[in-house]
Design brief:
The protein has 181 residues and is an alpha+beta fold. The chain is built from four helices and eight strands. It has helices at residues 2-29, 33-38, 98-115, 166-180; strands at residues 45-55, 58-67, 73-84, 89-97, 125-129, 135-141, 144-150, 159-162. The protein has a four-stranded antiparallel β-sheet. The termini are far apart.
């Protein structure tokens, strides 16, 4: 009996450790290349944030990272949204690597040209997702489409809901950001 309890305790500890490593690995996979670059240890990283625009209380910036030791550089588009509820507040962040900006712009234009003019007959979702978990898309709602951005993949409080009129402004901000990368 005592052996069985000890064995169960050991198996429970091993399972907990395995889950912990899996979650750590999952979080590492969800980082953008710019985040990985800026998190390097053993070096001095300069981080510069340049405002490009804002949309529905979501600040959009260019993030430039420079390794001052090796003089390597990388840049990304940074989304920052302050979530406020009656009980708490938090800042939600997303970085979109420079090589993902074209994909997001093309996806948004495709949605604007081919999805927006249609009427969905059943619940439908259309979305773009970056390697860090940032998501932008539309979903059908009672014969219309709603538009959103989700800054953090597993965080329901990181949604920024947009109106159909916000899509051209977002595209303009992203084009401007792309030109500044």
């Amino acid at each position: 009996m005592k052996f069985t309890k000890n064995l169960c305790t050991v198996l429970l500890c091993i399972s907990s450790i395995a889950i912990s490593f899996a979650q750590t690995d999952l979080k590492e996979k969800e980082k953008s290349n710019a985040e990985k670059f800026s998190d390097k240890s053993g070096t001095v990283i300069q981080k510069e944030f340049i405002d490009v625009g804002d949309l529905k209380k979501c600040k959009i910036q260019i993030a430039k990272f420079t390794d001052l030791v090796s003089n390597q550089k990388t840049s990304a588009v940074r989304f920052e949204y302050s979530y406020v509820s009656s009980y708490s507040s938090d800042t939600k962040l997303a970085l979109l690597d420079s090589d993902e900006i074209d994909g997001l712009i093309k996806s948004l234009k495709l949605v604007q040209e081919k999805i927006l003019p249609t009427t969905a007959t059943s619940y439908t979702e259309v979305s773009f997702r970056s390697r860090s978990g940032f998501e932008a898309g539309r979903y059908s709602k009672k014969n219309s489409w709603d538009f959103y951005m989700k800054l953090e993949r597993y965080d329901g409080k990181s949604y920024v809901f947009l109106d159909k009129e916000d899509l051209p402004k977002l595209l303009s901000i992203l084009e401007q950001a792309k030109a500044s990368l």
